[in-house]
Amino acid sequence: MPVDANYIRGTMAAVLSILQHSTCPENTSFHFLSIYLEPEIISLINSTFPYLSYKIYHFHPNRVRGKISKSIRQALDQPLNYARIYLSDILPKDVHRVIYLDSDIIVVDDIAKLWGVDLGDKVLAAPEYCHANFTNYFTDTFWSDVNLAKTFEGRRPCYFNTGVMVMDLDEWRKGGYAQKIEEWMLIQKKRRIYQLGSLPPILLVFAGNIKAVDHRWNQHGLGGDNLEGKCRGLHPGPISLLHWSGKGKPWLRLDARKPCTIDYLWAPYDLYRSSRIALEE
């Protein structure tokens, strides 16, 4: 899970939700990724969760220097968004499997259920959304190039959100998947084949070749679209994880007194509401 000063409030809420809903929270370990190993953040984690099993790993932005292309939203262009690609290099070799989670989520079920997903011969597991218009994730430049469009031959590519993924790090490392994703990032620098940050190059490598997980494990899009962040409701069906992907973040909307109804599901896990807000409530 990424952690930085801008998203620390979301990270702490996510951790709290995972611990509260875990049958055996003492068996859960956290791996945080950070560009700046700020003592204040480490102190905050220690004081908030004094018994938490965790480590913080440094992700150096030089790893993606010159490889990131400008997307439709500045927040998507931050180097830390790309750290998930390099988990097999960053984490110790004795960490064989991880659940990657964005910082704008809360879990309302036992995370061990997601951990126990049988990957079979797949490297990655995530909820798939095959009803989404997959062509929208790439530009006309991509689809009009016969050689590029052949990328998905032999696959039935479906959109999946990269903010919630079960990853086999051993197989990721063996398959050289970080390098394969980087190759698409370099093509993007020259050809402009997508517009959405770190998501499309991962789709190019994995779409149509992942283990599908129940949709309950990523009720995504609760932050609205990437441009305006308009309010959205829940999708039909059971829920195990809520994800405020998109422009709107619940802590910002709550602080601005312009919350969406869905943000009140996040609020009980917010450990850092200002005293002024608490008094008014």
UniProtKB/TrEMBL annotation:
Family as reported in the entry's similarity comment: Belongs to the glycosyltransferase 8 family.
Membrane topology: Single-pass type II membrane protein
Gene Ontology molecular-function annotations: glycosyltransferase activity
Gene Ontology CC terms: Golgi apparatus
Compartments (UniProt record): Endomembrane system
Protein's organism: Solanum verrucosum
Name this polypeptide is given: Hexosyltransferase
InterPro entries associated with the record: Glyco_trans_8 (IPR002495), Glycosyltrans_8_dom-fam (IPR050748), Nucleotide-diphossugar_trans (IPR029044)
SUPFAM superfamilies, A to Z: Nucleotide-diphospho-sugar transferases (SSF53448)
